[in-house]
Each structure stands twice: as structure tokens, then as C-alpha cells.
Amino acid sequence: MSARFTAIPDGRRFNAPEPALFLPNSRASLEIMKFLLALFFMLASAGGASAADAIAAPADAAVPQTAEQVKLSYAPLVKEIAPAVVNIYTRRTVQGRVLNPFMDDPFFAPFFEQFSPMRERVESSLGSGFIVDKDGLVVTNAHVIRDAEEIMAVLSDGREFEAEQVLIDNASDVGLLRLKGNTGDLPVAHLAPSEALEVGDLVIAIGNPFGVGQTVTSGIVSALARSNTDINDYDFFIQTDAAINPGNSGGPLVSMDGGVVGVNSAIYSRSGGSLGIGFAVPAEMVQAVISAEKSGQVSARGVVRPWLGFSAQNITSDIANSMGLDRPRGALVSDVFVGGPADEAGLKRGDVIAAINGRAIRDADELKFRIATIPLGDRAQIKISRDGKEQDITFTASPPPEIPSRDPVTIDGRNPFSGATFINVSPAVIEELGILNMEDGVVVSEVEAGSSAARIGLREGDGIIAIGNKHISSTRQIKGRMEAASAQNRWVITLRRRGRDQTLILR
């Protein structure tokens, strides 16, 4: 008998035998079939009862008698939530060069790029959102309102309001708007903890797909704590099969008790339409963003989140076996920042983080999400396993320090970095930009559109490791290194992007 490999959701794995096959042409099978037929006719003829009567139905089963018993509808839930859902329309001005057929040719492109005129055009987009307080605060996605110059919010009752940006938190892809003018009495949707959800629970999604108008779709919770999506910095989502399409972004994902448990943010699609795989930012992250805005714990780039001063990685099956764990679950502390809160609290490299504030931790992504939702100043209790023994460690959530200072430097002139701004790496910068595998050095904080730096593909968050094979440790060294490379008319640049190094050679 052959064997097959079987995985169990909690991480355990077993070798399981293939199921036995039923062979209807065997002698034993024919005897069983004869017995079953004889039993059926015996039950059918006993006392004039039918075969269906012999299989007794539950005593409380009955044919529906009223319209209420027949009708199963989401209408009451929709009537409660839909008035607080808004359609969002944005406009922004973008610049672009006039397209030319020679622009794709490597020989002619530099010439036509230099002399092709720049033209402005107005770009419109749409999305969804929902009102969370009587003052007109609206929750949506950051990508819906980012760079918007005009924002209009339309309620389901037809009222239209201009809106202004309150906060754009790119790390979580959550944005906040405020309705302007005399808003009057506004309907409100209430956030509810997604922790109460279970896979298989019914949910509905409300939004403005493709701009057709407010639309309601239904489905179930397909998965919780979904990661490995690379949608935002906190890769931790509710997955649903409720139809979500372009324009639904920012709309609410609603549970059956009427609470908003998530903000619909992204879909997996090959065609641009729904394939039944949608992702929503959990309500806990949304509440953390709202609370941070009200308490002033924000910066120009979004929410200022706690820094505990350590990094962690997922526990693989091999790591679990080597540490004597019964399954690969939790997060393994891989590094501790000297002098940080974790170091002062006694956390050590090799500790396994099992829970934070009483909530079990599946992996490093969930740990990062949980920490990001802790308000600054609050105390966090972390349960760890060290040498097979459990213990609790308590931290105070504090903002990351800016040591060293940023010392921004913007490059101009005729060189590949022209139009880029560089800053020194610090814990605050690492948290803000989501930088991987860089504890010090220099990173790109901004790239001017259409600049030389933009044309060579430089991005925000790129680390500059070396120029001309000489290490870069601070922004003060950038200009000197660039001048030396310019004299040779040859630039050898080592970048670190999302934790991986790559070398560019430019002439």
C-alpha cells in the first residue's frame, strides 16, 4: 500500500496511508449489496411503512410555515451599516512625458527623454470608506487617498461632502479623512474586534466596485492571520471570499453582529476582478491608527509605533526539532538591540516568544502586528520560552529613538543620485520605512519624480552600502563619494533593497 504526506493545520505532519478502494465486482461486495437490498425491502413492507418513514426524522423538524421562517436575508444588517459607508472620488494632477515610439530604444531613448515635453493630466480614482464618529471621521485605505488633491465623499442617501486628509499611514495602508462643511446628523459604523472571528463565519463587504455605486457582497472568513502577501508592512490579514473588486478598497468587512471587523484592502486576481480571494486589514490595526491620531502620536509619515528593540524570525520545522518544540509555532528572537527596552527587560537571543498580552503568537509576522497595535506608554507582557521553561517579561511601549540624527542630504547636479534625499539609519527610521537587515548606514528617504535617481530605479527605503567600493556610514560621506565617482565618470553603487544587496555599474 502506498503512503501519502498529510499536513495538519497546527503544524504537525504525518505519513498517512492511502484510503482503501471499494471494489464492487468482488464476491464480498456482492454479498453486502444483497444484504442491504433485503433489509430495505423488509423495512418497506413492515407494517405498511415506507422506507423513508423507517429512517426517523428529528422530532423538531417541520416545514416552514411563515414568511419569516422561509426568508433568510442580510437586509437588516445592510440597513444598519450601509448608511455609514461612503463612496470616495479623488482627483490629482500627474506629470508625464509625451510618449514617443523611440523611447523604448536604448540608443535613442536618452535623446528623446531629454527633449520630450512634460505634460500635466488629471487622474481620477475611486474607492470606499466608512464613517466612524459623528464629527465625520472616515476610515479608508491609504492608497485610495494618497497624493489626492481633491476628495469627494458621497453617502448612500445622496449627500456629498468635500473631505480633507487627516492621516495617511502607509505602513498599515490605513487612511483617515474628515468630512467638511455642515454634515448634520451622520450615520456611524462601529469597529468590532476581529479576534472573535472564526474561519467559516459569515461576513459581508460593502463598497463601490468599478464605480457602479454602493454594492453589497457576502461570503465567509476564509482564513485568519494571513501573511506572506507583501501588501503592507504589517503582513497580517483577514481573508474572505466575499467578492471584492477595484473600488471596494477602504470599504468595511462586516460580521453578522453588525461590527466592522476589517477594512477591505486588496485582492488576489489574474484579471483585475474578484477570484474569491480578498484581504482586509483587521479592525485592531484600524483602531490603533485612530487612537494614535487622536493622541497625537503621529509623524509626517504616519503613526509612531512602539519600539521594543529586538528582531525575530519564524520558527521552521528544523528549528523546532533542534529546540525540542512539539511544533513550529511562535517567534524566535534573532537579535536584541543593546540598550533598548528588550535588552533592559532581559530578553535574550534564542528566546521563543509564545504570546503577547495573552494572545498566542503564530509567527514573526503576527508578533510584529501585535506590537504595532500597542499604544505608546502601555505596558506589554510577553510570554517567552527559554531552555524549555516559560517566563513573563514586561516592557513599556516607547517610541523608537532617532540616534543618530537623520541629517538629510539632497543630491543635485549631473549624477545618477540627482533628485534623491538620503538620511542616516536609526531605530526610528527602521520602523518608519520598514527597513530590513540594516542597523546603521544611509537610506533613501525621498526620490523626486522624473529625476536621475528615479530613472535608475532608486526607491524610498533603499540602503546605500557603498559607492566606488567605499563603505557609506553617514550622509556626510555621500557628496564626497559622488564627486570622486563623477571625476572618473563611472559609478559603482551597492544597494540594499528589502534585505538583499545588489550592485549597479553606471557610466
Summarize the structure.
The protein is an alpha+beta fold.
Give a written overview of the molecule.
The protein is α+β, with helices and mostly antiparallel strands and 507 residues long. It has 4 domains: 3-44, no CATH class; 74-304, Thrombin, subunit H; 305-396, Pdz3 Domain, CATH 2.30.42; 409-506, Pdz3 Domain (Roll), CATH 2.30.42. Strands 23, 24, 25, 26, 27, 28 and 29 form a 7-stranded antiparallel beta sheet that branches. Strands 3-4-5-8-7-6 form a 6-stranded antiparallel beta barrel. The protein has a 6-stranded antiparallel beta barrel with strand order 9-10-11-14-13-12. A hairpin with a 2-residue loop joins strand 15 (298-299) and strand 16. The longest helix has 19 residues, at 27-45. It is globular.
Helix percent band: 10-25%
Distance between the amino and carboxyl termini: 64 Å
Please give the radius of gyration in angstroms. 29 Å
Are there runs of 5+ residues with pLDDT below 50, and where?
1-10, 12-26, 47-57
Binned strand content? 25-35%
Please give the oligomerization state of what you see: single chain
Mean pLDDT: 82
Largest sheet: 7 strands, antiparallel
